[in-house]
Amino acid sequence: MTQLLRLEAQKLWHLTSLRFSLVLFIVFPLLWAYAPGIFNVYGFFVVSGFQVPGLVLRSSMEFLLPLLVAIASAELFGLEINYGTLRTILLRPVSRGQWLTAKALLCCFYPFVLVYMLLALSLLAGVFAGYGPFQGGTGVGASGLVGFGTMLPGDAFVELVRAYTIAACSLIPIGLLALLGSVLLMRAGAGALAALAALIVVRLLVVFPRLEPFLLTSQLDAYLRASQGVGPSLLYISIHALVFAIAAVLIFDRKDV
Amino acid sequence: MTKPITNTPFIRPASSRVRCQARAETRTSVQQFQGPDAQDPDVRDPDARELDARDPDVRDRDARASKGNSDKATEQGFWKHNRKAGRKPAKPSAEAFSGKPARARRQPAARQRTQKRAQKRAQKRAGTLLQMPSRATSSAIDLRALTKRYGARTVVRSVSLKVASGSIYALVGANGAGKTTVMRMATGLAYPTAGQVRLLGQSPFDDARIKQHIGAVVEAPAAFYPYMSGRANLHLHARLLGKRSRAKGRLVAMLDRLELLTAADQKVATYSLGMRQRLGLAAALLGDPKVLMLDEPASGIDPLSVNLIYQVLKEAAADGCAVLLSTHHLDDVTDYCDVVGMLDAGSLVREVALAPLRHKYRAHVSHAAKAAEALTNWGGVSEVHKEASSVTFSSSERRKLGQVSFWLAKARVALYDLQPVRFDLKRELEDAREQAQLLKDDGLKQRKPHPPKTAEDLDDLLDLDDLDLDNPDLDNLELTLDTNGDSPV
């Protein structure tokens, strides 16, 4: 298993989607930080470097981050099909379950890589506004962007790390859903698209109010909730993640390759 | 050494035998060296088919060993021996099952159990608790009635084959015949709809650890991570195989043997097709496998590389590895393989043991009948057949060929030339396909019988040609015609 995890981690740096994400994450925060029309949209000016990551996370969790996670997770599996190495590896004394579990673990790890990369680059992008104490909030805490007065840099940083960590957790099921899609369809692109299509359909299920708290899409803004609201969200996220991962492993175990 | 395979629902053994007679002169039936028990392919012992696949020398040696040394009889051998002799099998001794000498049996039972447990613990610690094939399992690769269906489409129909250790088995057939599907099922990549796969006595679907002893290339060209060098890819495979094969020496030796040492540190993305195939073979051989399975190993590569690949396969087989490959290169099959299986529309329609055919010679002579008589009387060569102006015979010893001219001269027959007979695999394949098609048509006709209207129809339906009408038992015979079921009678 350790060998497999090492192998999968090595592959991570060869994912096209990761390189694409890196380029995007350099450009995207800069757009937000220096956008001339930001006052017209949000009604405020960026006064601190800690506000840029908040703004970036709020805007990217809508679609961009789920998309990037879905693509990368599907690519983790689809890459093997493209290279033809899926069969080569399975001809070795490696069980299918072990191999896909290693991939699933990497899918769980990948959102953290992605969001912390985004956090670091967003913080860098906000360097023009400085990192000192400021009047307002980070945009991802209880006080929103307006805040309750002066915010210290340490508090702001902790708030950002908390929000980014919860956001990464809520992206895990999406990655695993994309993995399940690519296992089912044996194509990276089709797997990612299937995951996104499923998300759109799930988003529409808000018309059933009783279902809404349990939906996967309802957990995507868990990072904005206060501490007591995060617990149930993390539970639902874990359940979704487990179901998708187990389904992927079971299906792959009976799949012809 | 040819036999029709009659395991498809369409094939009637009786009619297949009739058709085989047409080419009986050019082919030697498998039954010839299987004895009278094996005349009907359907009732033959399945293990007997494996015997066909082996070199005659090995076969003879094994037969002698099994006859003379009953102490070493395996469980399978024991039962088979009794069955073939027509005796009711007595209860076999524990020794026969365990294959242990009598001295070991005399040890106290408790001591034996302790030793066994200690051995198991040691194996468990080493992470290699794997039930290795017992002596009873003589076939390294054993595919039993493999069938694969995709929806309503059947791509592989009840394919059974065995490959013994030390032999090379080639699967040939047209595109879409089902070769790759058979290979995928044999390697455990695709699940058969019906049938079983046994590699070294174990199913690759049950325990992945059996793959430590299996080398395979099922992609053409062999698939590797393109961003890694050839050496790094092999290191990766060695790591996945476990500590045993991680020895750098073996890795370098494999690269060297397959002429890849100079390119070992280049990225695989820069490799040519032939280099990739050779790297694939190097990876497959890395774990010193007991079973090697290759799908189209020589596909699209230059003749020199093809030659190298087959040489390496030959060496692996000489080391006791069982090799199963699928290919379109019929000439190479004739030169290097021991057995060829012909697939057509998913069915294994014929198996030919090639090794004995390599020792076949044709002598053009002045008088064929005299020459045949002289060679038969001499006895130094076997399977002497008379043709119009020549005789064909088999001889596994080259030195005896020199004596042929002497014996012919003694019989006052002039010898014009003496040449090895090259087996025409292409013709054989075409013939097998044709025959399979005919049998399939026969089967279809048989499936939809028309109710007989005349006495001739009834005669055709019942196939009464060979019936002895003078037999008094026929007076009491009562026939019932049932045209509603699948069987007409």
What is the typical, i.e. mean, pLDDT of chain A? Answer: 89
Given the structure, what is the number of helices of chain B? 17
| Strand order within the widest beta sheet of chain A | 1-2
SS-based structural class of chain A? Answer: mainly alpha
Structure notes:
The complex is a heterodimer of chains A (257) and B (489). Chain A is mainly α. In chain A, 69% of the residues lie in helices and 2% in strands. Chain A has helices at 2-12, 16-33, 38-42, 51-60, 64-83, 85-90, 96-125, 153-185, 188-204, 227-253, and strands spanning 134-135, 150-151. A two-stranded antiparallel sheet of chain A has the order 1-2. In chain A, helix 4 crosses helix 7. The two termini of chain A are 21 Å apart. The model of chain A has no long low-confidence stretch (mean pLDDT 89). Chain B is of the alpha/beta class and 489 residues long. In chain B, a hairpin with a 2-residue loop joins strand 2 (139-150) and strand 3. The longest helix of chain B is centred in the C-terminal third of the chain and has 23 residues, at 425-447. Mean pLDDT of chain B is 72; it is low at 1-106, 124-137 and 485-489. Helices cover 38% and strands 18% of the residues of chain B. In chain B, the strands form 3 sheets. In chain B, strands 1-10-9-4-8-7-6 form a 7-stranded mixed beta sheet, with helices on both faces. Chain B is built from 17 helices and 14 strands. The A-B interface holds A 3, 7, 11, 14, 83-85, 87-96, 98, 254, 256-257 and B 184, 187-191, 208-212, 214, 216, 218-219, 222-227, 236-237, 239-242, 283.
